[in-house]
Amino acid sequence: VRNVDWTVKPSLAWSRLAATGRWQAVWDTATGVPVRIWGSGIAVPGATDHADIAEQAARQALADNLALLAPGAALSDFVLVSNVYDGNIRSIGFVQMKSGMRVIGGQVSFEFKHDRLFVIGSEALPNVMIDTSAARMSRAQLAAKDVALKNVVGLASATVSAPGEEQILPLVATDGIIGYRLVRRMT
Description:
By secondary structure, the chain is α+β, with helices and mostly antiparallel strands. It has helices at about 10-20, 50-65, 65-70, 140-150, and strands spanning about 5, 25-30, 35-45, 80-85, 90-100, 100-115, 115-120, 165-175, 175-185.
């Protein structure tokens, strides 16, 4: 559950977007990022019916508003994962990456209706920093630790998945980011 604030956070980044029309936003108090932005929109002829036009416009909107939507991120940190038209609204979604690893929960989205970009969403995490030079356990080392732990707790026959790919887990408090950790999923 995110704590949100309806008070606009004045910044040069917000001013740039505000200059394009009438916009409102709700802000995540922990990240300082606008969770949802909606308003009069930006005209993008053909975006509703044409996936390629909408994708290009979404990429440009992300580039133009990166400091607002994902402070400290680079354009290359976002990977397209969806471009869907439901007959009324076209939605474009990007997931957030850092150093080739998925930032869990990090994403941005853009919605088009009647050839206008009218909603922008950001659950992007700001200023993702991770020490990729630290010694990390290999999948084989993690699997060996798993076997040892199962034996200690008396679950030697329990099934455990192989460790997944490394991902970045944001540690988010109600009023700020505590930090980021490297993790691997196991079930």
